[in-house]
Amino acid sequence: MTVWRFERTHVLIKRVIFLSCFFFVLFCILAGRLFYLQVLQGEKYLLLAEKNRLSVRLTLAPRGYIYDRNGVKLAENKKTFQAVLIKEQAKDYKKTLKRFNDLLPLDEDENKRIERDISRKRAFMPVRIKDNLTFEEMSLLQLNAPDLDGIVIEEGINRYYGAGDSSTHVVGYVSLLNDKDLEGDKENPLFDLPGYRIGRLGIEQAFEEKLQGKPGIRKTEVNVYGRSVRVLEDTPPVPGEDVHLTIDSRLQKYGLEIFGKESGSLILTDVRTGEILSLVSAPSFDPNLFTVPLSVKNWKKLSENPKTPLQNKAIAGLYSPGSTFKIILTLAGLGGKDMTANTRVKCTGRTKLGNQLFHCWKRAGHGPVNAVEALKHSCDVFYYEKSQDIGVDKIVDMANKLGFGRLTGIELAGEKKGLLPSREWKEAVKGDGWRMGDTLNLSIGQGFLNATPVQLAKMITVVANGVNDVPLTLIKKETKATDNVSLLGIPKSHLNVVYKGMNAVVNEKEGTAYGSRFTYKGQKMAGKTASTQVRRISLKERQEGIKSQDELPWKYRDHAMFVAFAPVNKPRYAVAVVVEHGGGGAKTAAPIASKMLQEVLRLEYDDAQKKKETKK
Amino acid sequence: MSFFKDRNCYLKNYNLSLMDKIRLFSWPFLALICLVVFIGLMLLYSAGNGNWDPWASKQFLRFLMSLGILFFISLTNLRLWMKYAYVIYAMALILLVGVEFFGHVGMGAQRWLNLGFVKVQPSEVMKIALVLALARYFHGASLDEVRSIRFMIPPLMLMGMPVALILLQPDLGTALMLVFASVALFFLVGVQIWKFVVVGVGGLISIPVLWMCLHDYQKQRVLTFLNPESDPRGAGYHIMQSKITLGSGGVFGKGFMEGTQSRLNFLPEKQTDFIFTVLSEEFGLVGSLFLLFLYGVIIAYGFIIGLRCNNFFGKLLAFGLTINFALYVFINMGMVMGLMPVVGVPLPLVSYGGTAMLTLFFGFGLIECVNINREMVIGRRGSIDDE
């Protein structure tokens, strides 16, 4: 071995040792880094990995059904077939959509919505193209399936309202989410679910939470593309609870029918329990139109109709109660010292207050009338005169007691409170003291006062009940409705005066609603008419000869009202009817009320007969 | 064979029979290598969601083929490699030039050359050829020669030419490996340390210039490396997910085939450069350290073979190839753990891929060859007669 070789080998060994040490350090750094990532930061990264892989999805609970009092389904879930597009299964989804449109044209808004959904969702997620396919549409799609790559027909669930338009304003409807919903609650995880619908009106809206149930939770493992790989945890949804209503679908249908082309509302109640047997707002519309995206044409038709089918007039329509308020006046008067059942007032056709004249509807006057006769003839002067003795405070007290100026508590969203004026109210809102003229206007249910039809129904129900202040309800309860009810506290003798008067209105010849008396013998109804001015007939019009309500344009005619109960001797059912611009209460509202009461009594009889038969 | 007869000097007193060679073959070294390969196959099986396809079975076939090559190379005569070192280097360089003009583009870089019957990656060939050439060059060099700057110009060129060509492809990872391996060899043969310091400082100063020469995607990689969280869905995705995969394994891992990150594809290309994360996720710190340990033992073994060898060419060859292997390990793990930018270096013996496996086994074959021929005396110019 030569020296130079020894030399360089010596250096080599030294440097190999150095290099080995260097490598060892590198290994230590790697091991340290592993320790840092896997032990010190391990939990953080484990969490991130879990976040990567877990996806929590909600599954919709089946919505609860809505039944009428006899167990007829008013709202149910029905299997539907819908066409969906799965982008990744289509060669060119735009072409597929075009062909679909050739077969089943969709309107422009829908096509826009579809494009938006496709761009927003992942390629394997189905996008709804068309809901509620009919059998014909399905076979058409199936025939053309080879040209419609990416289109899949899926089973879905939609809400179905078997009663059609007859119970819309009670039952309501559900519809898909609109942009406003999405804006309002961006965090709601339910909003991501296709086919998620929200109750928009009536019971569907008011009982949304109960009907909706609890969504199921589905925890799945997803891969990097978001595709579900396996189910880790699956909590099934809790189905929504059913709601049993007090309404009778037969009466709903009949009620809407007898309104004909009129616009208005009626509420039929059981006076013993306060249960609402029928609540109709006319005209109505088919709620099934809303469960699928509503076409622009239909929306325009509904929203531009002057008879406002979208509004529930029974709870949201405000009217001067007019002469129906005379029932309140009678009860308020009898409660005081200034008036008894026999107190007479001479009606000369007008009352003078200062230098202001208040006219009775009958210019010639009614002569001397007592409380019963005043109701029968709907004599205004009687109330003008007596209200001055009674005073506004007592009138307001009685009106408040019978439900004016406050919500009835009916289980529907959107009920209006109406307005029951009082000294305090006028002071606060108008900044003006209460004047006697206001009392006179109030006495015949005019002036500031306004109320909803359901408030009228509440009044007549309680009056007909006579004992209990029964709350109106739409929900069938297990317990007897009269259990937790407070007493009305009006002496029977006072009520009898009202009953007598209301009986005379319908069943005596000069009564304002004599024409609407029951067509059969054995049972009678009692009622009170009202016609409230929408607009005064101008002097010019009078001179031109337009006098009759019929000759005025529809929207200027008086509102017609009628509150009634039957049978007279043993009140069982009460009804309140408002016909918008119906002219006179006796002419349009009373016949509807009469028919309705006769129908409910007939049904009660029929049902009892049937029960007897089945028992035998 | 006329070559041997004419020179009559080659196998003087050193004519090993096949049996001798098999006896001198280091079986433990091979066993260690095979163990790592088996770990790799297991991980590929897991990465394929419990399937031999598409990766594990193919990799196994490559392993068998590579094993054959290893045996063949180990049984060759070490002198032949000494003799043909420059020829091999020249051929590798020609291939590298060829790839510039006729190469296939893959992953945005020209790396493959189709020779008709086989596709080769000249940069892989160069990893061995450069070590061979440098070992040959320094075999007869005295310490004084090594310390002269003029003597160092040819080896620097040997290194510089392929590095330049590979950077053109562009393949930063391989270029770095060639530079590091060469520098390590220069260090071992005795180049003064101050020279490294001077070049190192010079390199640091020239970083801004080099930055200008980098491709946009390379710049992006370096930037993302520095701050992966800045763009978690884009360029930083790899590093971020790599760290999540690794870290989520904890101490004992999630269990074989239970790694969620790899199974659910959160880590793209997990079968190649990022295979280490599969191990870390499923076997935790324990498994990761075990593999790290195996690598350490293999490197140490390589060094021991180098130290034991009596001829300088064999020594340098063993060191050079072992250092190459070590660089694979450091660079790959460094980038997977987020200590280095992602430069595209596979984890040796474990990552899916044929070329790297073949190159590595070729290298191990040479190391075994060095081990078998450790007593061989090789003259300064390749002959047996000394001086």
How much is the average pLDDT of chain B?
Answer: 85
First and last CA, distance of chain A: 130 Å
Total beta strand runs of chain B: 3
Q: State Rg of chain A.
A: 36 Å
Task: Describe what this molecule looks like in 3D.
- The complex is a heterodimer of chains A (616) and B (387).
- Chain A has 616 residues and is an alpha+beta fold.
- Among the domains of chain A are: 78-155; 249-284 and 308-614, DD-peptidase/beta-lactamase superfamily (Beta-lactamase), CATH 3.40.710.10.
- Chain B is mainly α and 387 residues long.
- Chain B is 68% helix and 3% strand.
- Chain B has 17 helices and 3 strands.
- Chain B is globular and about 60 Å long.
Describe the structure concisely.
Chain A has 616 residues and is of the alpha+beta class.
Notable traits:
heterodimer, A: 616 residues, alpha+beta, Beta-lactamase, five-stranded mixed beta sheet, five-stranded antiparallel beta sheet, 19 strands, 18% strand, B: 387 residues, mainly alpha, three-stranded antiparallel beta sheet, 68% helix, disordered N terminus
